[in-house]
Amino acid sequence: MAAKVFVSIDGDVKEAVKGARYPKNALVFSPIERPSGDYQRKKELAYEETSASIEKMMEKLNRRALS
């Protein structure tokens, strides 16, 4: 589903029409959707995986430095 796009010209806000020409001072924007709770969980998992990967890399570097 495509997000709706709006255009503001001199304070008047209306839905943008594809292919229509707007003046240079027109502000074109779309509403920001809030991320779902699932997004937060994925972010936490990615952080944990990255942290674990960095720890393994540091251990390998320490072993190489000691040998």
Quick one: how many beta strands? 3
Q: Count of helices?
A: 1
Q: Which shape, going by the Cα principal axes? A: elongated
What helical percentage do the residues reach? 40-55%
N→C terminal distance:
57 Å
Low-confidence segments: none
Strand content: 15-25%
How would you classify the helix and strand content by structural class? alpha+beta
**Main sheet makeup:** 3 strands, antiparallel
Widest sheet: strand ordering? 2-1-3
Q: Taking Cα atoms only, what radius of gyration do you get, to the nearest Å? A: 24 Å
* H/E element sequence: EEEH
Mean pLDDT: 86
The domain tally reads 2
In short:
The protein is α+β, with helices and mostly antiparallel strands and 67 residues long. The chain is 45% helix and 16% strand. Strands 2-1-3 form a 3-stranded antiparallel beta sheet, with no helix packed on it.
Question: What would the keywords be for this entry?
Answer:
alpha+beta, elongated, 3-stranded antiparallel sheet, 2 domains, 67 residues, single chain
Overview of the structural elements:
This protein is an alpha+beta fold and 67 residues long. The protein has two domains: 32 residues, no CATH class; 34 residues. Helix content is 45%, strand content 16%. It contains one helix and three strands; from the N terminus they run βββα. The chain has a three-stranded antiparallel β-sheet with strand order 2-1-3, with no helix packed on it. The longest helix is centred in the C-terminal third of the chain and has 30 residues. The chain is elongated and about 70 Å long.
